Structures are given as C-alpha cells and as structure tokens.
Amino acid sequence: MKARRLTGLIAAVFVVSVSSAGWGITYSTHYDCTPGRTTALVITNASDYTLEEGYVLRLYGPDGRLLQEVSGGLTEYESTVLLLNEIVEPADATCWGLAQVESSLLLVLGTWIGEADHWVAVINTGTSLLQSGASGAMVYWYSLNFANTENRRTGIELLNPHTEAVAGAVDLYDALGKHLASEEFELEPHQADYFSPEATFPIADTMWGIVDLRAAKPLLMVGEYFDADGALFDVDIADAPYYLQFPPEE
User: Whole-model pTM?
Assistant: First the structure.
C-alpha cells in the first residue's frame, strides 16, 4: 500500500473537462507506475476524422510537476495503447498522479491499472462537458466509500486537473454516522495528494463509511481498495459530483 498522505489529514479512472487553454478537450485520469504497479492507457478515436496530431499525453507527478509529454496521430476509429510504465521509466515512488490527454477529436478512453502480474481494474469513459464555471456552481460535492476494518483497507487520492489551485475540504464519517475528522486543503495546479485512513484511525468493525469532499472546482477523487494482506483488488472514482451548490439568489 502506498505511503503517500494528504497534507494535514489526510488507480483507472477519469474526469473529463473542456480545456480553457489549448486546442481541444482535456481528459484527465489517475495513473500509477510506482514499483509493482502498471498502468496502460487506451485511446480510441470515436470519429471518422484522421489527424496526424491526434492527441497529446501529459503525465504529472504528485507535486504537479510535468514528468513527460508524448503525442501521436489517430486515423478514424483507430485505437492505440500507451504503456505508461515505459513512458515514465525508470519507475519510482513519484511515478503516480495525474495523466491528461488533450485532443480536438472525440475520444473514448480506457485505463487499465494492474499489479505486477495481473490487471486489477479497467475503466472506460467518454466525454463529459462538466467544466469549472460551466454550470455556475459555487461548490462541487463528491463522495466515496471507505473501509478500515479487519478485512478491508482504503486509500483516497485527490487530483487537481486544472492550471490553477483548487481549495476544498474533506470530512470522514464512520458506519454509525460519527464524524471522524475534517480537513481543509488546497491543491496546486496538477497536484495530487493521498490519504490512508489506516495510518490515522484504528481498525474497527464500524470503521467504514463515507469520505465527503467539497471543492471550488471539479476534482478527481480516486478510491483504492485493498484486502487484509495489502493486495489491491479494485480502483474506483467519484468522477462526477453528487451535488452542486449554487450561490444564493440576490
């Protein structure tokens, strides 16, 4: 299990937004190429157009630093697979975070997250036009289930897909509805952060429930789920807010 920790309290998935700067739509996802992990990104052109510059892939480290940028062409309805471990090689403890694909084509993306000898999760996604400010929302609310019991563990990752900092707050509640903790955060552009409840809270039968997130802009929130032996068995994402809070009417 990763040793990353969200400051103060606190791997195939996507949130997609229209880029405010650039030449197309920006698709954002989590990737994990740390030792023992594998990520493969499948990019499909879901249109009958062909472009020699069909996409640009940018990989960011957890500190928001751009690690690598590659590009490629796509013919109509063509699919290509990018083995991210080869792109960020050599892999180390900082080879995880935000992956973004920018394209003027209509794309369908798939991400494969695996351990060294098997795939753990596969997520396929298309285009979502949710973007910062598009709906006039003041606060975006997300939630994920977590478990810190005898048989299950959870890691929670937050990713900022924007070119500006994003502020928010996280609350944790156990199965009985008890409020466990609350923490404000601010993520710098393209920065990622990670929290393992196991590192903070005791293992208990009722130590499971929800992670509730509110943020000023759309974010990517990833849940990594482990068994009692620390083996990853699933990766999930809150890729759309369950509630949009709007400014009060004047």
Answer: 0.87
Q: Which whole-number Å values give the CA distances from 63 to 31, 36, 191, 193, 237, in the listed order?
A: 14, 21, 5, 8, 20
185/169 Cα distance (integer angstroms): 6
Domains 14-125 and 139-245 share a fold: yes
Burial class from Cβ neighbours inside 10 Å (0-12, 13-18, 19+) for residue 145 reads: middle
What CATH architecture applies to the domain 14-125?
Answer: Sandwich (2.60)
3-state secondary structure of 50: coil
Provide the residue ranges of all domains of the chain, joining segments of one domain with +. Answer: 14-125, 139-245
| Element housing 125 (H / E) | strand 119-125
Residue 122 DSSP SS3: strand
- Give the model's pLDDT for residue 6: 46
The SS3 of residue 240 is: coil
Q: What does the pLDDT look like over 40-94, one tens digit per residue?
A: 999 999 999 999 999 999 999 999 999 999 999 999 999 999 999 999 978 789 9
Q: What is the dihedral of CA 15, 18, 21, 26, to 10 degrees?
A: 40
pLDDT at 19 over 50: no
Give the domain 139-245 fold: Hypothetical Protein Tm1070; Chain: A (2.60.290)
210-241 residue pLDDT tens:
999 999 999 999 999 999 999 999 999 887 88
DSSP characters over 162-199: SSS-EEEEEEEEETT--EEEEEEEEEPTT-EEEE-GGG
